[in-house]
Structures
1.
Amino acid sequence: MTARFAIYAAPGTGSADAAAVRLREQAESWLGRRMDGTRPDPRLPSGWTRAAVDEITVNARRYGFHGTLKAPFRLAEGRSVEQLEQDLERFARTGRPVALPQLRLHRMDGFFALVPGADAPELHELAAALVTGFDAYRAPATATEIARRNPDALTPRRRRMLETWGYPYVLDEFRFHLTLTDRIPPDRHGQVHDALAAWFADCLGRTIAVDALTLCSQPTPGAPFRLHSVHPLRRPADRPRACAAAAHEGTR
């Protein structure tokens, strides 16, 4: 099977959190696509055309608005997507919503993303549980897949993670981010940063709820990822009003 599957956090998908929905709508307008196949709002930052944004979001648009919890993988022999979906639903039924605190714009390795602006231990715990708990569904990475991660450029710890879990940024190396662009040439960093900061101004500084998991699929190599199913995290949070309250604090 050439199809790949991934478990993502896509704030605002399957969510009743108004701040998360607003974030998703802004991000999908920027990227120019929604993973469910419907059309996003065509608005863009002032001075930008669709062609100009498309030029710097080729890969980001293909993956869609998401934060990786379990990176894309091929199904292991003897496993089916139906089993995966059922187990993810069972997992989500007992999982608590988590928060992305104080969302901020950040440049990572030359690309721009939205990241938590404060420690998010519950988010890290959720990602670790998915990485380890669903690894039986992952076919071993091929030599080509390993090479694609440029292992010689990784730290020894990240290379071990890649070999063990199929992705280098897991467990204590986890770096949650909501990707907004591809790598940007240094001479354009300021221009792109300013456009994104203005476009997401209503979302930055807020605490955003992650109250559902999304199972996404890529039918063939290089194809856009699609939304396969949504799995709300159903167990009540310890502080159920925290995200809602923070959503009204405004930009900091």
2.
Amino acid sequence: MTAAPLPTLALRGADIPLLGLGTWQSEGDDARRAVRDALELGYRHVDTATGYGNEALVGRGLADSGVPRDEVFLTTKLPPDAAGRERETLERSLADLGVDHVDLWLVHWPPAGAATPATWEQFIALRDEGLTRAIGVSNYSLAQIDELVAATGEAPAINQIPWSPGDHDPHLVAGHTARGVALEGYSPFKRTDLSDPSLVEIAAAYGVTPRQVVLRWHLEHQVVVIPKSTHRDRIAANLEVTGFSLTSDEVARIDALGSSAGAEVGA
């Protein structure tokens, strides 16, 4: 199976590749090599966070890859306990990553469980200064997003939440769409029963793995997905999901694996 060019999604401020490399729990030289390998293989989207403690390693992997900075979509995140120190935290992230801006900066979790419009105001200001091209949130509910909009007049470009076929909730998807907020999913495999008969049967029909079917399902829904791996062969296999498509019936069959409750953060 031959990988096709990575599809992208237009955000306010930048176009984000729908498939990226996640780096949560990637440590030491494994993190550096994973980023380098992913970029050499054709990825153009890397997701990290200040809280992961690996921004410097991600930056080294980016430099080692030889891929020009302007070809890579780079995301990092503000830890919730850094609310009130937004500028200092982002400037340290940029220094560790070895770049002069990131493409997307997220509030990693609602600080102290609250929407915290004051932090969102700082995100808007630092975006307007050019330190990040786009801004968003992670693990926010729709009600918390509404609070940010009410306070500032600007919605996040994207909300990064746990997402998988088992989390699929069309009402939550529609709620984000209505607010002009893109969805980005994390932990696609941890939250999926990869032995489910539907996934196994669909995978067999295409000669792929259930993991690849899960990733392709995200892409069919225009949901950004960031599978994490430090193994070059698995990183390569994840990229191959651009080489096949699912039918609408197959997408609906996978959708049906979700509960009506949807993801907890969207409740």
